[in-house]
Amino acid sequence: MKSGALLKQKINSHQPTLGVLATFHFWPGLVEIVMNAGLDYLIIDLEHLTHSQEMVADACAIGRRMGFPILIRPPSSEFTPVRLAMDLGPCGLLIPYVQTLETMNEIRDAVYLKPRGRRRPGGPGNLWMKDYNYATWKSDFEDDLVILPQIESKIGLENVDAIAQHPVTTAIAIGPYDLSADLGVCWEPDSPVLTKAVDKIRQAGRTAGKNMWMIGDGPSLTKRGFSFLCLTEPVMFLAAALGDLNRRTRDTGPAAPASNQPLP
C-alpha cells in the first residue's frame, strides 16, 4: 500500500513524522483537515470508543486513494480484534498493551495470511485489491504494513527488547499514561521512574534499528530527539484552544465606551 510505504520511509529515515490520534470523536472529514494541516498520518482509536465501522472503512479508503496514512488502534492486542481492524483497510495498526513475545506472534498471525500468519481477510478492506492471490496480498498490503506495539505495563517493559526486535514491529511505541500508572507514578510525566522507562523503550528501539513512537508536546519531544510523534487528540486540542481563546479574549477587558456616549 502506497500510504504505508510512504509512512515507513519517513519513520525509518527519522524525518519529522507527525500525526494525531482521534479518540473522542471521528468523522471522515477529519482526514482532509489533518492532511491540510500538513500532518503525516492519522490514527483512528477503537480501543476506548466504538466509532462506526462504515465510517472508519470509508476513511481508510480515502487514505488509500489519497496516499495518506490512516492507521487504527484496535480494542486489544488479541487475535480477533487485530484481524477485524485489518479488515477495515488501514495501512497499519497502533496496538495497545503489548506485553510479551507471544503477543507479538499472535499479532503477526492476525495481520498476515498463510503461510506467514492465520488471517482470513474479509470486509471492506478487500474492495481495493485487484485480485486475491497471496502474492498480491503480500506485495500490495502486507509488506508495507506499519505495526506499532505499545508498551504500557511493567511486563511489557521487561520484554521490550524482544518486542522491538520482532520482525513485524515497524517502530516501538509507548502508552505513557497507562505505563506511568502501572509503575506507580500516575500521572507524573517528569517522574524519574517514568523517564527511565521511556529511555529503556527508546534504547530497545535503537538496538533493534527501529524508531520510537511517542505522544506528547511536540516541540519539547523534538528537542529531546524524538522524530515520530503524535501531537494531540483533536477534541482535546479543540478544548484547549477554545479555553485559551476564551482567556485571551476576557483578559483584554471590555472595550472602553466613547466619552460622548452614555453608559448602557
Shape: globular
CATH fold title: TIM Barrel
**Global mean pLDDT:** 95
Structural class: alpha/beta
Name the beta content range: 5-15%
CATH architecture: Alpha-Beta Barrel
Rg measurement, Å: 21 Å
Structural account:
The chain is built from twelve helices and eight strands. The chain has 264 residues and is of the alpha/beta class. The protein has a single domain (2-234), classed as Phosphoenolpyruvate-binding domains (TIM Barrel). It has an eight-stranded parallel barrel, surrounded by six helices. α3 links the parallel β2 and β3. The longest helix has 18 residues, at 234-251. The termini are far apart.
At a glance:
Helix content is 45%, strand content 14%. With 264 residues, the protein is of the alpha/beta class.
Question: Key terms for this structure?
Answer:
TIM Barrel; alpha/beta; 45% helix; 14% strand
Which secondary structure elements does this structure contain, and how are they paired or packed?
Elements: H1 2-13, E1 17-22, H2 29-36, E2 41-45, H3 53-66, E3 70-73, H4 79-86, E4 92-95, H5 101-111, H6 134-142, E5 146-151, H7 154-158, H8 160-165, E6 172-174, H9 176-182, H10 192-207, E7 212-215, H11 218-223, E8 228-232, H12 234-251
Parallel strand pairs: 1-2, 1-8, 2-3, 3-4, 4-5, 5-6, 6-7, 7-8
Helix pairs in contact: 4-5
